[in-house]
Amino acid sequence: MDAQAPPRERGPGYARIVTTRWAFVPSAPLLAVPDDPSLAPVRDAARSAVSRLIGDATAVTVLDGSADGAAYDERAGGDLRDFGLDIRAGGQRGELGLAHTLGAWLLDDAGWRGPRAYVSSLAEVPSALLVVADGYACVNDLSPLGFDPRGQKAQAEIVEVLASAVPEALCSLDMESALRLGCTGAPSLAVAGRMAAGRGWRGAVTYDDAPLGIGYWVATWESGDPSA
Length: 228
Fold this sequence. Notes:
alpha/beta; Protocatechuate 4,5-dioxygenase, Chain B; 7-stranded mixed sheet; 3-stranded mixed sheet; 24% strand
């Protein structure tokens, strides 16, 4: 049997490549109803994105940029009773709003048992970030705000930004216009964009539709950053 080669020494220039993974998913309550067929495709895409997100993660951060001042750990939980659904997710403390609760449900569903943080802002780049954010609520005739071509155009533009992974474009969102057109996820996108700016990312959109009249997307971003 050949002798095993000794391990190569790591010189002063050695750097370990740490992959940062982010996922963008919608905050639709019916996402958490596995037997509801109306959102089956987006649910499947979100599950796949979260499964990849947690693959080699040591902790997961869930972002809802509209939850002012939110800062909770894995002890926090939430429910969907306000939406007529007898569904609970996360920990025992009932502190989470809708988007964070949907993020908790996706993590529970994926079998994640590690540390979690539910936040509304970011002080550093998380290695595993779940951005829970809806698109525009005026993209077709089913939309809560009715159809508005401005919303349809803006929705398509954000999907393109998510696909091409250009965080600087998220930083320049017209927040007033986005909120007026029903894009409740705009604050989350802006927070994520500001934190991601200046890094190189690879992006992919695995879902883009509006089955209930609100723009939903599922996207993944990955960045390889040398870490000593």
